[in-house]
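Data deposition worksheet. Section B asks for the primary sequence of the deposited chain exactly as it was used as input, without tags or linkers unless they were present during the calculation. Section C holds the resulting structure in token form. Section D is free text for depositor observations; keep each observation to a single sentence. Incomplete worksheets are returned to the depositor.
Section A, Depositor: J.P.
Section B:
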Amino acid sequence: MQTANPATNPEQLFARGRDRAQSKAQGRERVVEQALGGGFLLVALGMALFMDSPRAVETAPLAALVVAYVIACQAKFDIADGYTVPTELVLVPMLFLLPTPVVPLVVSLSWTLGKLIDYAGGGTSVHPAFHVFGDCWHAVGPALVIVAFGAQTFSWDSWPVYLLALCAQFGFDFGATALRARLIDRIPPAAV
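Section C:
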């Protein structure tokens, strides 16, 4: 009889994910989380400071989208040793209602607020709350594509760019997840 590999056994992965959400990162995990988060912040700040947009930040849409993103962050679905959230429902409007280059920073702010609300309600530890910056890479890909192809103002004619932006979102999200799994847990990308 074969036993399941601990790295792929669903029950063990769920338990490890719940434990990780409550504990302080140590050693390699801490270094990887800091590098992913720091790298994200450098890229997101660079985009916000050095890329142009045809739109200015407007307070009402910004506030509404941040609140909606925070709410979406609260609807967690466990997968393996992590989770997913339905933030796509808010990310897409952000890309077209806010200046596209600032969207990754707004996503990270919103996600951080959601984590702090989780912490205040006892749903998580404060220690991993700031690892959210490494979780925000999914917002960088589509923002870069939309800016690079000059499609910041919505137009049905730009649908190929938006499809490419969606692929970039999936790619950046998978890349950050696979890198994290490889460097922290030594899980190959094919197993992610």
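Section D:
The mean pLDDT is 84.
Helices lie at 10-22, 27-50, 59-74, 88-97, 103-120, 132-135, 140-148, 159-185.
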